[in-house]
Amino acid sequence: MWKGRFTETTAKVVQAFTQSLDLDWSLAGYDIEGSIAHARMLGSVGLLSAEELRRIEEGLSRIRDEISSGMFLPSEELEDVHMNIESRLIELLGPTGAKLHTGRSRNDQVSVTMRLFLRDRLLRICTGLEALLAILLDRGSRHIEIIVPGYTHLQQAQPISMGHYWMAHFTAFSRDCERLLFALESLNECPLGAGALAGSTLPLDREFTATLLGFPRPTQNSLDTVAQRDYMADFHSFAALFA
What we know:
Elements: H1 12-18, H2 21-24, H3 28-44, H4 50-69, H5 81-93, H6 95-98, H7 106-142, E1 147-152, E2 155-161, H8 162-187, H9 206-212, H10 222-227, H11 230-242
Antiparallel strand pairs: 1-2
Helix pairs in contact: 3-4, 3-7, 3-9, 4-5, 7-8, 8-11
């Protein structure tokens, strides 16, 4: 569609409908993190010179600072966070900036950005959940001998210990913890190198990129990598029940 058969400018109403900046501008830091790792991989396999890599890293760091300070105002005409950052990098570096996209498609780029974002959110939640479980376990053990009424249908039904009450919540949140770990495992693979759908003929080092980004492994099938959003559904399933 873009840079294809159409010769006229896209209608403003269509641009407004298709742009995603209202949602994905908050992903800018994760997009830049993925881009820096990709650039370092390109340098490690000889697809970028040391000087090109240095300039690209400095350019991306500058863009990150511009975004953090509010100096960088995204353009709706560039549709999303990824195109805005790439366009700014090319503006700063010229042809060298365009080399960052070597061996990469928007498809695997979007996927790694989302995985980095969701992983960060899950790890933050995990920290809080671990603290909550520790508190509930402590209260459960300390309040064993405190007897309170247990209710059903708003009526006092049976006596229970306060420790039993706290442990009910501990048990429920423990299941949430299991679901969190499943969601984390579901997304914790690096999609970079999958390309548009069938990988690349370039000598990309996917293991290297995965390691830089803290993933235990790259994804296994390029077509599945760019087509699936299971990991998002797993995250939302966990979040819906946890909330």
